Structures are given as C-alpha cells and as structure tokens.
Task: structure prediction
Amino acid sequence: MKIEDFNFAGKKAIVRVDFNVPLDENGNVTGQTTTKNYTSATKYWLGKQALPDFNGGLNTSFSYKGFDVNIATAFQLGGWAYDSQYLDGLSSTYYVGHNKDLWNTFNPETGKGSLPIWNANNSSNSYTQTSDAHLISASYFSIRNLTVGYTFPSSLMKRLGIGSLRVFATGDNLALFSKRQGFDPRVSMSGGNSNYGGYSPMRSITAGINLTF
Result:
C-alpha cells in the first residue's frame, strides 16, 4: 500500500519492508492500493544507498619567491543520507527553536510550499515519521587543510646571524560544501546523522615560526 500523494507531497512513506511485492515485467510494483493511514503503508526499495559512487581528494602545493602554499581537499560523489538532526528541528515533538524552513512547508490555503505539509495534529504530517521525502544527497567537497608560509631571504638571514626563518599559518577543516548548510555527510557511512556518536571535524587555525641558527 502507499500513502496518498497529498500527505507527503508526492513522496512514498518508508514504514515496513516488503521485498515480496508483485512486479510487472518492467520491475514496477503492481496491485498497489492507496491508504491515508501511515502505519498501513508498505516500504519499498528505492534503489538509493548510503555508499557513494566515488570519493577522493585533490592536493597541490606551489612556491614563489619565498612564499609557499599547500592545499588538501576531499570530496564525495553520490550516496544518500537521512538528515535526522535537521528533521528534529521541524518535528512537532521538538520543544523550542523550530527550524525556519517550517515557513516553506506546503500551505493548502495558498497552494505554495517547497516542503511537505506540516500539521501538528496529524502524526503523518508532523515530521515525526520516516519518509523518503527527507533523503538528501551525501555528495560534498571540503577544504581539509590550507597552509601558507613565507621563508625570508637567506642573504638577509646571514646578516642577522640566522640560518633560516619561515613563518606560516595553517587552517584545518576550513570549509565544507554539501547539499544543506550544516549537514556533514562525512560523519557517518550508514547514511544518517543521528545516534552514532559522531561529530564534524573541528575547524582550527594555527600559526608558527620555523627558526634555525
């Protein structure tokens, strides 16, 4: 069975697994009926998984007239995740500080809204139930490290009785670009960000001096 389209803005509910549903020759589910009861809906395999299609990193370094720059990045293409922390801010069971995206939920009076309808009096429409409407792309690009340094000319250092002098600044985990601001696909390979005890890598900026005599 499937949830009525108006309940989830065209998205099927994910409730119960049923891998023995009848399929036609094209692989489409047959014999479906419509229900307005969330608990009566059957879960279907959507063909989406947490594992990415490809991941990797790009590193480079260069120097010019005493300046040196080193950059390390990482990226992931493909994969899907369930942003539970984002949904907590939309849920009717959340106590305070609801997410501002509540203003973007569907309004039946105006016919506008980019997110499914929100109704605190109906558990199927209060963002407390699991639905594929809330799956989000796990692709990302991150700047893991950026180091900028400058080495003073050796001729100047010799006059000062110094072997070498280099000053530098390093930034770790400087930026993350993902589908939704605040969502970090890196913290879990299971496709979710709730109840796994993971935290996003902390951003840190340091500076230092390399001095030899």
